[in-house]
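Researcher: Dear colleague, please comment on this protein.
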Amino acid sequence: MIDLSADIAARQGSLKGGDERGALFDQLNKGADVTKGLKKVTADMQTHKNPELRTANTVPTKSTPQPVAPAAGPGSRIGADPTKSPNMELVNGKKWMVEHQNGNEGLVINVTAINQAVYIFRCTNTVVQVKGKLSSVVMDSCKKTAVVFDTLVGPAEFVNCQSCKLQITDTVPIVSIDNCDGIQMFLSAAAKDAVKIVTSKSSEMNVMVPKRDGDFVEYPIPEQFSTTVTADGLTTVVADSTG
């Protein structure tokens, strides 16, 4: 088995909150009590009764308000959720659930029936090896995670993933990639002649095809296309080089 975890790139992001919002909410939560801290205006403090106050002082310039921190974007929903417990279990004898794994590179699933499926959800820095023949594999919202499987009678699907990998040791009829960035596929000699790869809204996808000597040749999947209008509708062709 190829060591897929060795070269998975690390990406990090952070979100900052504003301290100003805490003070604002404290004031709002006081309700009617918020007026208790105000001073009463006496007659000598009123400008229409005391003209000297009109030119005595100017209104101080208010400090620039701090912007509210932006809400978490879609990228924050990719990878393991630290608030959830890691889980791997077979549900109803048919579906293997692998969820919220982080840094676990030794997960092994032994499939016992061809109608079983594997669903990998929100995992980070994880490697899952699936042994046996099964119906399908789905990787959803994972980051820097790899899956290795033998034989699929149905599709292998990748949705909302970043920097993930798959290795096929036998065959798979179709690989579907939707809304992903950085997907690398290692095909077997048997799979390269039979697999169909369908992509949508994805980038940085590469297919590793084995040569006779056992080495791999890397081919990037096109991301740019050119469309022209014809008498019968539209004609679309690949616009970038595949190397």
About this structure: The two ends are 26 Å apart (CA to CA).
